[in-house]
């Protein structure tokens, strides 16, 4: 049976195994050891939206593991001229060993996965961004040692990144708080799932309105853009609503002294976060970006290795 990773829920049972594998693969790479378990394997990568980190880290990751990745843009494929997603999935499955898909719609993501006979990895859609969260967890563990007892505070839109973070935090037992305006909470189904998992792990999950109170004594502060890809029509309203939620020097002064600042990037500097915070010694955003590579290599080996 092929295994898809569309949601963080798809890695719930072996999340720590994947993180450990990623850490070991990172160690190998830093030590200059060649590790090519995916020789002759090909990853097809379909991007409906732009990408810097996801595209490059998957492509470089496949190369380093001895395999190959192909960048596919719908507008250059027959998909852009009306070939169905289902047929595209069936055809690609005859050529490649796995498909990474960055999609506008979660439903189309599911449609592709249903029709592909090879594993499908969600490289971001409008509901989740699981490969980002694998890298985020790896980064938190590197900087904080352990997850238990950490206060993780997400400030901003309850978007795809926030949804996957809520699930990821619950799975590793961090206390998860999101400070967001009314109407911009995480997906209700995902939030419910995350609460159930957190209850099993004895950790807290809470939605708050006051971001200043939320970040008090935080170990991790995380934010993301107010306007995600595909929400451009709402840009003006969103920018206005989220202005009050900016992560700036005053806000982070309420966190613990050794708090870390995280952002999936790209950052919209001067909007959801100030230069002073992104460029501060507490910021780990570039470690986090680097860990996309290592975390995804762990995932790829897990899905495609012998
Ligand atoms: N964080 C992230 O997914 O970045 P890209 O959009 O550049 O891939
Ligand atoms: N929430 C953002 C994340 C970008 C990596 C978006 O979907 O555009």
Description:
A five-stranded parallel β-sheet has the order 7-6-5-8-9. A four-stranded parallel β-sheet has the order 2-1-3-4, with helices on both faces. The chain is 42% helix and 13% strand. It folds into two domains: 8-128 and 291-304, Rossmann fold (3-Layer(aba) Sandwich), CATH 3.40.50; 132-288, Aspartate/ornithine carbamoyltransferase (Rossmann fold). By secondary structure, it is an alpha/beta fold. It is globular and about 55 Å long. Bound molecules: phosphoric acid mono(formamide)ester and norvaline (NVA). Norvaline binds next to helix 6.
What is the structure about, briefly put?
This protein is α/β, with parallel strands linked by helices and 306 residues long.
Tell me the layout of helices and strands.
Elements: H1 15-30, E1 42-47, H2 53-64, E2 68-72, H3 85-93, E3 98-102, H4 106-115, E4 120-122, H5 130-144, E5 151-155, H6 160-172, E6 175-179, H7 188-201, E7 205-208, H8 211-214, E8 220-223, H9 235-242, H10 249-252, E9 260-263, H11 275-278, H12 285-304
Parallel strand pairs: 1-2, 1-3, 3-4, 5-6, 5-8, 6-7, 8-9
Helix pairs in contact: 1-5, 1-12, 2-12, 3-4, 5-6, 5-12, 6-7
The CATH superfamily of the largest domain appears as: Aspartate/ornithine carbamoyltransferase
Per DSSP E runs of 2 or more residues, the count of β-strands stands at 9
CATH class wording of the largest domain? Alpha Beta
**Largest sheet, spatial ordering of strands:** 7-6-5-8-9
- As residue ranges, the low-confidence spans are none
Rg (CA only): 19 Å
**Termini Cα gap:** 14 Å
CATH architecture identity of the largest domain: 3-Layer(aba) Sandwich
Number of helices: 12
Mean pLDDT, to the nearest integer, reads 98
- The helix content, as a percent range, equals 40-55%
Number of domains: 2
Strand content: 5-15%
What's the shape?
globular
């Amino acid at each position: 049976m092929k295994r898809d990773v569309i949601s963080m829920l798809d890695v719930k049972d072996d999340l720590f195994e994947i993180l450990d594998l990623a850490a070991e693969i990172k160690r190998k790479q830093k030590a200059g050891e060649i590790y090519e378990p995916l020789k002759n394997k090909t990853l097809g990568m379909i991007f409906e939206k732009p990408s810097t980190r996801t595209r490059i880290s998957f492509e470089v990751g496949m190369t380093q593991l001895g395999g190959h990745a192909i960048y596919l843009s719908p507008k250059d494929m027959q998909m852009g001229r009306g070939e169905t997603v289902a047929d595209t999935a069936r055809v690609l499955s005859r050529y490649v060993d796995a498909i990474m898909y960055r999609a506008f719609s979660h439903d189309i993501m599911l449609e592709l996965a249903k029709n592909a006979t090879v594993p499908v990895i969600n490289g971001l859609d409008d509901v989740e961004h699981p490969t980002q969260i694998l890298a985020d967890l790896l980064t938190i563990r590197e900087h904080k040692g352990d997850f238990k007892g950490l206060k993780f505070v997400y400030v901003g839109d309850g978007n795809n990144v926030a949804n996957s973070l809520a699930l990821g935090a619950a799975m590793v037992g961090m206390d998860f708080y999101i400070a967001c305006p009314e109407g911009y909470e995480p997906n209700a189904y995902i939030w419910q799932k995350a609460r159930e998992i957190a209850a099993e792990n004895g950790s807290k999950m809470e939605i708050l309105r006051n971001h200043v109170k939320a970040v008090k004594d935080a170990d991790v502060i995380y934010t993301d853009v107010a306007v995600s890809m595909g929400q451009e029509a709402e840009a003006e309203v969103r920018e206005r609503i989220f202005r009050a939620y900016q992560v700036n020097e005053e806000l982070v002064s309420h966190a613990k002294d050794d708090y870390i600042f995280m952002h999936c990037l790209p950052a919209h500097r001067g909007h959801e976060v100030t230069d002073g915070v992104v460029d501060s010694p507490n910021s780990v955003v570039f470690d986090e970006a680097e860990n996309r590579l290592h975390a995804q290599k762990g995932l790829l080996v897990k899905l495609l290795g012998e």
